[in-house]
DNA sequence: AATACCAAAACTGTATACATGATTGACGGA
DNA sequence: TCCGTCAATCATGTATACAGTTTTGGTATT
């Protein structure tokens, strides 16, 4: 259609990173003009970028309104994690079926990179690599569509974690769990690998929704988003400059 | 972002239908001008429609080339069915967990509609309703994301069926299987429901890829697409008129 | 001090223009 | 007869213009 224009990709990637690293807080306005000016492209292209980000769940764009950084609700968060668990299990299953020795090394490489990044205190990088592990796993399943879906799910989980997670608890303690999963994969123990993966997802999910009362979801939803909105009210307004009074 | 303009939705739906009913054969060119002229809208909007169709896997759009109706490869078909099986199982599981008596009636209503359509020999309608059954099931799971993914998967399966399936074998014999699945859901028998669903998917999948030799996929892929291209070469060129010599 | 109203400003929706890259078909050479 | 070359045509990539809607901030009113 249009995608592989380098500028477009750059803008997309930049916005995605900025959102996931919480440099752009949920609710922040994303006016087409301003983004276009910043990346040196016209609104036409910005629109395409925003549309893609919207389809990935990182941006909310209602008609005739300025697009904003997505504010995932708890209900959405629950859905995302639920589907992700299912697809992770399927990925594990397929990877074991199509296992090759090189897979183990590949995954271990990622875990090592993540550890290294964490030691360098590059939390954002480590977080990204933590997600990358799961995307790579899906890729090794040999199913391109599964990889695409997993990629989208991991991204959305990252945003959820950024929004609802406790501030500095970025994914961490993950590495050990990843290592165990690799061991189970290598042993061809599908049941164990899936169980481990499920436990791992629980860890991540619990970290994400640390204060969720499953019963009062409806109200909880509102309050949680409200809290987010307040918190971001007059700190860091990176794109949309507040003009002088 | 842009979507809910009625014209845009109409064009999207029209093209989707036309593709799924094979009125637009795989490989048919879809020039922005012509589509725009037909629906009375500018290329700008057509572009958005084509981008969406591309993301749904119904259209192939490589840069600087005229978009064409997608020609799914056997590899893609395999991926789609594989993921779909996984998500169908998850949907069944969740629906049983959240079962309400009204669900049964709702699903049975769809099956009846499908039967009725088939008796009226409205095969396309019946086929659509057959797919609708699965989308509705996903919706009943209460997971919006799962519903979205299922919807996309059902659509893509329809195209695959249209491309690789034997001409007049539209989904049919499905109804009985759907009825059995409903019975298992109602009984709360997850294992049986999933087994039935899996068998059902096998039926559909077998009907779709009736002549697939799993070993020679690479070559088979090419030849199958070649056959498709030949078949559609000079019949029905609905959008792109062949100009007089 | 809070509220309702109104005009200016901020943005989006959509069409269109211009530049550039693909495709096609005719023509000429081997 | 078969290729290869080249220009005309077709169609996309991107920017921009203009119209219409939402948002905002100030002022008058209660």
Uncertain parts of chain A: 234-238, 240-245
Rounded to an integer in angstroms, the radius of gyration calculated over CA atoms of chain A is 19 Å
| Distance between the first and last residues' Cα of chain A | 44 Å
Assign a percent range to the helix content of chain A.
55-70%
**Separate helix tally of chain A:** 10
The chain pair forming the largest interface, with residue counts per chain, is: A-B, 31 and 31 residues
How is the biggest beta sheet of chain A arranged? 3 strands, antiparallel
Determine the structural class of chain A based on helices, strands and strand pairing: mainly alpha
Percent in strands of chain A: under 5%
Number of strands of chain A: 3
Oligomeric state as shown: homodimer
Note down, in words, how this protein is organized.
2 copies of one chain form a homodimer. With 245 residues, chain A is mainly alpha-helical. In chain A, 67% of the residues lie in helices and 3% in strands. Chain A has a 3-stranded antiparallel sheet with strand order 1-3-2. In chain A, helix 1 (6-20) crosses helix 3 (43-55) and helix 8 (174-186) packs antiparallel against helix 9. The radius of gyration of chain A is 19 Å and the shape is globular. The N and C termini of chain A lie far apart (44 Å). At the A-B interface, helix 3, helix 4 and helix 7 of A face helix 3, helix 4 and helix 7 of B. Chain B binds a DNA duplex (30 and 30 nucleotides) through helix 3.
Give the secondary structure arrangement, pairings included.
Two copies of one chain form a homodimer.
Chain A: H1 6-20, E1 29-30, H2 32-39, H3 43-55, E2 59-60, E3 67-69, H4 74-97, H5 101-119, H6 123-140, H7 144-164, H8 174-186, H9 190-208, H10 217-231
Antiparallel strand pairs in A: 1-3, 2-3
Helix pairs in contact in A: 1-3, 2-3, 4-6, 4-7, 4-9, 5-6, 5-8, 6-7, 7-9, 8-9
The structure holds a DNA duplex (30 and 30 nucleotides).
